[in-house]
Amino acid sequence: MEPAIETSSLTKRYGSLTAVNKLNLKVERNTIHGFLGPNGAGKTTTIKVLVGLLNPDEGTVKVLGQEVHGDRPDVRLRMGYMPELPKLPKYLKGWELLDIYGRMYGMAEQERKEQIPKLLEMVGLKGREKDFIGKYSKGMQQRLGIAQALLNEPELVILDEPSLGLDPVGMVEVRELVKEIAKEGVTVFVSSHLLFEVEQICSHVTIIHRGVSLVSDTLQNISNKLSGPTILQVEVAKFSDAIVGSVKKLPFVSNVSQEGDKLIIELKTRDDVRSQVSQEITKSGGVIVSMSLKGQTLEEVFMQLITKSQGGKQE
Amino acid sequence: MSAANKKGVRANLGWTTRFWAVAKYELLWNVRKKKLIGMVILAFVFTTLGLVLPVILSNAAGLSVSQNSDYVINSGVGSIGFFLFALVTVMNSISGEFESGTIVTLLTKPVSRTMVFFGKLFAAFITLLAVNAVLFVYGAIGATVVYGPQNNLHLVPLLFLGGSISTFVWVGIVLAIGSLSKSSLIAALGAFGIFIALFISAPIVSLFSDQARVLTYVPGSGATGYIVGLGQQTAYTPGMAVSTGTDSIAANLITYVLHPSAQVSFFTISGFSGEQILWGTPLYTEPLSLVLLKSIIVATTYILVFLFIAWYAFKRAQILE
Q1: pTM for this structure?
Q2: Residue B113 and residue A71: Cβ atoms within 8 Å?
Q3: Best mutation target, A68, A71, A151, A160, to test chain B (most B CBs within 10 A)
Q4: Of the residues A179, A247, B140, B260, which has the fewest C-beta atoms closer than 10 A?
Q5: Which chain A residues touch B25 with a CB distance below 8 Å?
Q6: How far apart are CA B306 and CA B174, in angstroms?
Q7: pLDDT tens by residue, B221-274
Q8: Which residue ranges make up each domain of chain A?
Q9: Does B275 have pLDDT greater than 80?
Q10: ipTM of the predicted structure?
């Protein structure tokens, strides 16, 4: 099966500014693929090309196996899209909007009658569907934006910054919603500048900066490829050199250092070896007060990549 | 039914379902626009005043109201009416979508830009036709009550037809400016500028220069000619006034049906003698049928050209919003 999204040397310029520069993007089906980058990285421009709102200057774009260039309603029939901070017609009521959009998707009346209440309930707008959109809060408009993106039971959903403008509870709900959608076999391509959000919901990630893709892989592979050593920090009472010596001898330990009453243990492995370390320290007469495992977060990976792409200088 | 099957059915539902969806989207917007509602109320007020003001003034002067069986057929929406209705209906049809950002969600639905454009145009046509119909029915009932039974009511459809053609010239102009500029304000001001320039300059060119023929080819109120021997001959007019412009198609259609062999003469004013206007020799004389035919061809050409410009600009637009 062809990838859900595939771009080859995609380039988009606004005058002298190159917003997207020879971007090669591949989004496999049935994945939640995060599209990560700082503000102005080219995420929204890329998405607008994918949904046909902008034409690329160079390169090719394939969505669900079909080439996208210009006005392609047949491709849009199979996908759903929620723009960043969706602007919806304020003169329509919530259900009217979904009903009209449903007709645009060619949904029969019965299908609309079944699908619309289900979606309104899912996004928490049940009871407010007969209000004009102009009376909705930003969060409610965001929820309606998600509902309209899922209306046609799409094969691919593109969400541009779905958590923007939502309160913390709303953000959690959106994340859960995305996971639910993906469980039904839908490919989700979600752009975000929130690293923790991507880390929590995505299986695959592409990091983009200044229109250039810095890395694109599974979250696990990115972590493995780019992370430094995993560090285990152990706070020990009754500290002694014997403890340091015995921990150093463990086969999965590459280095041990001491900071006050803390042992900083660099590990060669990503496996959870806390119980073995704990046993060794106790055996050597130490008393463990606390223990924490520090792997490199996506945020650290992200910052590392961004810094590298800027020639080592941090903005 | 599986999602894949549903999609198969959807693909077969054809363009009519989608076209109607776009038209409904636009119609709901039109009927909820405060500008249009205000304009309709204003039109009702003016129609009512047109009907009852002569009665009130006659009563105040102690005169009886004379019967006028041609009130309906001689009434109609004037140039400013065609322009204003067109303006409030379509000034933000395209540009408003860009300004509000709603164009993004609309154009990511499986409807082509061409379908969106023509769906919106169709909705504008239905809106304008409905407003005109309601006003005419109201005017006809009112006129029957005030001025007695009306003649030639079977010609009312010609008023609709002519009025629609006239309005759509302005619809085309407003849409073209709106699509090119993506700004409702520029669309409104640009179209108003064209309207007012033609509205003021047309009678001047028509009556004080010998270039009246040029006005046949511009939108708006056009050149004024006269059917000598028809209508009242007064100190101010040599006969029944006829305008060549695209705004006068409805009136000219009715006049043509009632007086098919009428000849229209175009004069310049050669001077004034007290309150009397001194008319020069006719610049030229044309059959009314030719005046009417030319105005319909000119209006249709404008409609097609401006709508093509609007459609092309919309189709090629990059959505940066």
Answers
A1: 0.84
A2: yes
A3: A71
A4: B260
A5: 89, 92, 100
A6: 9
A7: 888 888 887 766 676 777 888 888 898 898 899 999 999 999 998 888 877 777
A8: 5-218, 229-294
A9: no
A10: 0.85
